[in-house]
Design brief:
Blueprint (H helix, E strand, L loop, with lengths): L1 E7 L5 E10 L3 E10 L18 H8 L8 H5 L8 H4 L8 E3 L8 E6 L12 H18 L1
Antiparallel strand pairs: 1-2, 2-3, 3-5, 4-5
Amino acid sequence: MNIIKEWKTKEGYKARVVSCEYQKGITHHYCGYIGITKKHPLFEKSYSQHCDALMKLRDKVLKEPIGKRGIIPIFCYDGESASMHIIFNVHGGITFADYHDKNKSLWWIGFDCAHEDDTIEKCNVEYVIAECNSLSKQINVVE
């Protein structure tokens, strides 16, 4: 994992674009992450885990088009729970929620651009930055 860009979003979260290699030196894709602190209700929650803090968003989201969410979580949805990969509309859905840093001060929520039709040209750094900023706005609503 190689950090390409790091910044603070308008909502005050730390954001990262990283480059990940499939095989050493052969091909890579970008991933985007938003870091949240212990004060956030999604801190240390898995992206597929039900979270009560997301319940107020569930009914609204279920009335919207699928958008950029991952299709498999949508098709496998139980109709009752509220998890990050169901709620957040970001490229391919949320595929990561864990620590990145050894000091474990931030819990990172993120997505990857390694889906079937993704290319490095289509899902370039600018695209991933825009998706991170969109995710930051969505995460901020949960607070």
